[in-house]
Structure formats: structure tokens, C-alpha cells
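User: Before I run my own analysis I want an independent prediction to cross-check against. Here's the chain; please return only the C-alpha cells and, at the end, one sentence I can use as a sanity check.
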Amino acid sequence: MDSTVREASTAQLVGQLSEQVSRLAREEIKLAVAEVQAKGKKVGVGAGLFGGAGVLAWFGVMSLIAGLVLLLATVMAPWLAAFVVAVGVFVIAGIVALIGKKQLDKGTPPVPEEAIQGVKQDIATVSERAHR
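Assistant: C-alpha cells:
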């Protein structure tokens, strides 16, 4: 050990520790910010690609629906085939909407209930041990 460190007072050592902990915390925060920024850029690119895939999938579904109308038009009037396909699409949309509503109901209100319960339990445990 360096002789200056051995001769340093407790107050000086505590001051050095405080300074080093502060510097370490600042460096860790800078590192975390840089990491989040890098990941954010990748998430943005990924979201854009998902959006593009969604548009292409939409075009594909519309083409399938048009093909279904044309297929049904071979056995019935074209206007009737279009209405039959439209009713089928609306039925599917209604089913998907009901499933989506059920999922939304499960997720609302967006309160972290398990985390809140855990904190309450921790507070109760600490209070109980403090009164012993």
C-alpha cells in the first residue's frame, strides 16, 4: 500500500470513496444510455421492416379476396359473389375484434399488480421485523 493512503484520515477515505462511487455511477449511466440508444435504433429499423411486411401482407390478403370473388363469380352473379365474400370478411373481422377485446380486458388497467403486491409484502415483512 502507498504510505499516503495509510496516512489518510477516515474523512479523506470516505470522501475518496464517495467521489469514486459517484464517478462509477456516472460512467454506468453513460454506458446504459449508449446501449439504450443503440438498441433503440435497431428497434426502430425492426419496426419499420415489420410495417413494410404488414403492408405487403395486406396486399396479399386483398389479392386472395379478389381471387375468391372471381372464383365465386363462376358459379353465381359477380355482384352476389362480392357480397358473399364481404359478409365472410366481416364475420372474420368481428371474431378477431372480440378476441382482441377479450385480450384488452385482461390487460387493463395497466397496473403492475404483482409488483405492487410484492412491495406491500416487503413493507409488511420489514415492519414486522422492525417491531421485534
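Sanity check: The chain is about 90% helix and 0% strand.
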